[in-house]
Amino acid sequence: MKFYTYDRWVKLNISDDELDELQTDCIVCGGNGYEECNLGHEHECEECDGEGTVGGNVLEVYRQKALSDIAKWCTYTGNLSSQSELVKEFNSKFEALSYSKDANYI
Ligand SMILES: [Zn+2]
Ligand SMILES: [Zn+2]
User: Which-ligand-closest: CA of 31?
Assistant: First the structure.
């Protein structure tokens, strides 16, 4: 069984509208996209790259969907014994992904 890469999965499964809905205000800059430093400058927020929003839940949506796909696939193929292996495999990939993506962002 092959998993879609995260980027590919997002393209296939999440519409732009849904992406917008999953976006939340950046907690670091409060949705402004910039932060004021102690010299009074406005600096682009590094958390959200000046966007003011972050897509905090997309990774979790992806994880839930992938786990349910694994369960479905195992049921469909009558291969229930391999489910825990597949989940383990997915989780290790997901962890690597979370680190590489900084977990919270698209
Ligand atoms: Zn920000
Ligand atoms: Zn400054």
Answer: 1
Phi, psi of 34 (to 5 degrees): -140, 160
**Tens of pLDDT along 12-69?**
777 778 777 777 788 889 999 999 999 999 999 988 889 888 766 677 777 888 888 8
Distance (angstroms) between ligand 2 centre and the Cα of 33 equals 15
Judge contact between 35 and 27, C-beta under 8 A: no
CA of 60 relative to ligand 1 center, distance in Å: 20
Q: Which ligand is nearest to the CA of 44?
A: 1
Instruction: Kindly identify the ligand whose nearest atom is closest to the C-alpha of 36.
Output: 2
Question: Residue 63 corresponds to which tokens in the numbers above?
Answer: 């994880």
Residue pLDDT, tens place only, 39-49 = 999 999 988 88
- Nearest Cα neighbor of 36 from 24, 44, 47, 25 is 44
